[in-house]
Design brief:
Helix content is 16%, strand content 29%. It is an alpha/beta fold. The longest helix is centred in the C-terminal third of the chain and has 16 residues, at 171-186. InterPro entries: LRR_dom_sf (IPR032675).
């Protein structure tokens, strides 16, 4: 059963158990503060809109999550590590937010099951990642990421990649996507598609 709630984070446990006790598959929340969501241990899909001043209080997320959308965030390294290490998550959408110092630095052990990654209007200038941080990634979608300079060059070594979409980003981002496609072709992978719109 899907549910939709607008509650302060401190009251979330009580609100969900009172208003949506059968919520299992999907939950949409707007929170003015974000804390420990780990008690939602059966939840598979979470769409979380947060007040960006409070996302720093994020402590824990449900380990069973397969799909996660986070909107309106300001994310520290510690909070992104919580998201990155979710063991079952295959879809991640980050929308209308930014990372600390406008940098996203992924680390070893994160995003090991992730297949779909979307960044929409994320105000980052720099993204640093190694290919083994996204070993199963199949689709990368970048939309309206006006500040991003490029896709990490290490993505040329992610041979599971099938599609890269770049929509309304800097020309340098589109060029980096084409470079990744070219290098993968040189390694014998002709399946990677690159879709670009400006």
């Amino acid at each position: 059963m899907a549910g939709s709630l607008e509650v302060p984070g401190s009251s979330m446990y009580t609100a969900i158990n009172r208003k949506a006790p059968q919520t299992r598959k999907e939950l949409k929340c707007f929170l003015t503060e974000v804390q420990d969501l780990g008690f939602l241990n059966r939840l598979e899909s979470l769409k979380l809109s947060v007040h960006r001043d409070y996302v720093r209080h994020l402590i824990r997320l449900p380990l069973n999550l397969k799909k996660l959308t986070v909107s309106g965030f300001y994310m520290s390294r510690e909070q992104m590590n919580i998201i990155g290490r979710l063991p079952n998550r295959v879809v991640l959408k980050l929308r209308e937010g930014s990372f600390h110092r406008r940098q996203w630095n992924t680390t070893e052990g994160e995003f090991q099951q992730l297949k779909f990654l979307e960044l929409f209007s994320v105000q980052n200038t720099e993204w640093n990642a190694s290919s083994d941080h996204f070993p199963r990634l199949q689709r990368l979608v970048l939309r309206h990421c006006k500040s991003l300079e490029k896709i990490p060059s290490s993505f040329c070594d992610i041979l599971s990649l099938l599609i890269i979409e770049v929509h309304h980003c800097q020309q340098s981002v589109a060029e980096s996507a084409m470079q990744i496609q070219e290098e993968q072709r040189d390694m014998g992978n002709d399946e990677l598609q690159v879709i670009i719109s400006t």
